[in-house]
Write a structure and sequence with these properties.
By secondary structure, the protein is α/β, with parallel strands linked by helices. The chain has one domain: Purple Acid Phosphatase, chain A, domain 2 (4-Layer Sandwich), CATH 3.60.21.10. It is 34% helix and 23% strand. The chain has a 6-stranded mixed β-sheet with strand order 1-6-7-8-10-9, with helices on one face. Strands 5-4-3-2-11-12 form a 6-stranded mixed β-sheet, covered by helices on one side. The longest helix has 21 residues. The protein is globular. The two termini are 32 Å apart.
Amino acid sequence: MNLRLQEKKIFFASDFHLGAPDEKSSRDREKKIVSWLNEIQDDAAAIFLVGDIFDFWFEYDQVIPKGFIRFLGKIADLREKNIPIFFFTGNHDLWMKDYFTKELGIPVFQHPIEVTVEKYKFLVGHGDGLGPGDNSYKVLKKIFTNPVCQWAFKWLHPDIGMRIANKWSSNSRITNIAKNENDFKGDDEWLWAYCKQVEQSKHFDYYVFGHRHLPLNLPVGNKARYYNLGEWVTHFTYGVFDGKEFEIKKYGV
């Protein structure tokens, strides 16, 4: 994929986790996200939404989760303004299919993609299941992405399916907090290790991922950087590239 800035900027954000942990806090966060989108729209050459935008999302043949109408309305408005938007699935919303593509012309990516912006090369993805370790999740991901398992889940009534999924999502967050998963792990940062591994065989100027919930800016070899976008539950951070440099910024500061 090749993008031109035309004196504008490219924006990156991930891990909105809309829907969690409760309706009120999610609604407040949603309004803040819409406010951010309103502020950046005139400067945006493109917007990358890099996974876990929703805390849970499952597309039945004729049903999608209710709620998030302010956010959905805003991205529809951005598309009407011909601003390109690119969605990535995360570990919480990996059951996104073609609703956004058919309804809004927004492509949805399940894996990292290579993007060239002017002369700079990016590798962009959510980041779940990449790098060493996290073997239990990698097994779960194979189950969750198995077509037969998805077909079986689809036959649950949506009210039952959503209740089960939201309970699992809540337990996942509690487990991560107990394991201090949001603490910086130094050389054991597995996405950082993944970037270093990729860089040995193919060069990218920028590696941009979400999933870790930590805003990070780390070197990859001598000529590349790994950026983690953080999240919008506590950090409210996002990435912006102006053609010269990539920055992690905090909304509301």
